[in-house]
Design goal:
With about 375 residues, this protein is α/β, with parallel strands linked by helices. The chain contains 15 helices and 15 strands. It folds into two domains: about 250 residues, Aldolase class I (TIM Barrel, Alpha-Beta Barrel), CATH 3.20.20; about 70 residues. The protein binds S-adenosylmethionine (SAM) and iron/sulfur cluster (SF4).
Length: about 375
Amino acid sequence: MSGIYVHIPFCSKACHYCDFHFSTSLNLVEGVISCIQIELKKKKHLLSNKTIKSIYFGGGTPSAIHHDFIFDILNTIKENFNLSKNIECTIEMNPDNVSPELIRKYYDNGINRVSLGVQSFRDCDLLYMNRSHDGKQAIESLEILSKSRINNLNVDLIYGYPTLDDKSWIENLKILTGFNVHHISCYCMTIEKKTALEFLIKKKKLRPLEPDTGARQFKIARDFLTRNKFTHYEISNYSIKNFKSVHNQNYWNHSNYIGVGPSAHSFVDNLRQWNINNNKKYCDQIHASKKFYQKEKLNRKNIFNEYIFMNLRSFKGLDISHCYKQLKPNEIKDFNNEIKKLENLNVLRKKNNLIYLNEKGMLISDNISSRLFLV
Ligand SMILES: C[S@@+](CC[C@H](N)C(=O)[O-])C[C@H]1O[C@@H](n2cnc3c(N)ncnc32)[C@H](O)[C@@H]1O
Ligand code: SF4
């Protein structure tokens, strides 16, 4: 399974919590898009004998730029890569960009999955986040998508912030599951460094996060969604049968993928590359045929640690025999001891040769992973 990730680094408004790479000025759109096309051609050899199972337009907000730019990139991909017949081709959209005409154009050009950033249906929450849309637009966009030919829809929601009480969180989940949605990503609000959210909370202009809300609302979502036909298959992700995201699984399985555009990451044969996260510098370097990325070859420890991290988060289970194959005899002893301690703490369970987090463990999965890491 190989994939292509295209980072579109433009948004119409800066959400307070976001530390992804984007610009709210659209001045450089044309230049960035043509450089992404150049980058695709430069990287085509990396996946020359592979079949592409997933294309993902993420950002930023891909739906915030003119659709012809997206189609130009899609054409370059079609001309330079071998695409699977049943490829998953996703675009991230914000509700204020959704219209029947745009969805039709996307579909006609091969986009068969939409990931819609709703976050909440309540205006007070959307204001806290500084989103570009209101609750009414979120509902309208879902109505449009439900009537469209897009038959694979993900919606992102965020929980765990002070304007959202438990009752309103359940209400958000109820409204969403009233639509024909195939996949839901629920993210706990995190305060990233140097974001407006961090600054505004420090200056007491926004209410701070409360300590236990995230954990409580994680459980509420899990209970509600698993009772309503969704399978919880990764810490933040739920899907109905046969609608797990191919893009996400590619990433978690350490499959090869190339990422193009400012700040995008690539991972091919244990070599990781990450592009400059500045639109102008990215274009300048591409035009000057200079290096526009940094790279790192993953060593045995990195590969092992990433395997632990990804497999504990995704609930298919961590394969102990696979771990043993990667470890030296003295490391196996430490690894087993750590597993025993975690079992005694009642955060995971062992079944056959697989390890699974229980609900208590899911809430501290990063901490559990780091205890199993090779250092
Ligand atoms: C990079 S955004 C791109 C999608 C699109 N631009 C949007 O905002 O809907 C991907 C998702 O990450 C989540 N996200 C980003 N920053 C977050 C944060 N600090 N805390 C929780 N969720 C976050 C949001 O749910 C968002 O939909
Ligand atoms: S959350 Fe999405 S829309 Fe908001 S700033 Fe980040 S990328 Fe842009």
